[in-house]
Design brief:
Strand content: under 5%
Shape: globular
Structural class: mainly alpha
Radius of gyration: 15 Å
Number of helices: 5
Low-confidence stretches: 127-132
Mean pLDDT: 86
Length: 132
């Protein structure tokens, strides 16, 4: 049996952490209703707060494809919640690049994991103009 193949346990882990990251980032996003100036801080606030569950997820990642699948799920969630489809290719591409970077470090290198997370956050935290 191929050890690098994703198992049902890996898919469950991806689903749980995707939901957790979405909930944490959604809660941060709701802070924009308090004051509009807080929206400008989302570029810093969401990656910092979202890093906590994401780093826990990185401790579970051992196989290529887990970050890519998570990025596809996040792109779908963002589309369904009204963020538009234009960001989906960027989110998926950043997830694939983050997966490649983390794989290069064997999913255990701190420096490459931090770089991978930075790339993973780039596309998700873009600022879109307000729609009327």
């Amino acid at each position: 049996m191929n050890e690098n193949k994703l198992k049902p346990k890996d898919f469950i882990t991806i689903g749980i952490f995707t939901a957790l990251i979405f909930a944490v980032e959604f809660a941060c996003g709701m802070l924009g209703f308090i004051h509009p100036y807080i929206v400008a801080s989302f570029v810093v606030l969401i990656p910092l707060v979202g890093s906590i569950p994401m780093m826990l997820f990185y401790t579970k990642v051992e196989k290529f494809g887990m970050l890519t699948i998570m990025s596809v799920l996040i792109a779908i969630i963002m589309f369904v919640t009204g963020m538009g489809w234009l960001g989906a290719p960027l989110i998926i591409a950043s997830g694939l690049i983050a997966d490649l970077i983390a794989k290069k470090g064997g999913y255990k290198s701190f420096k490459l994991t931090a770089l991978s997370h930075g790339i993973f956050c780039l596309a998700r935290n873009r600022q879109l103009p307000a729609q009327a």
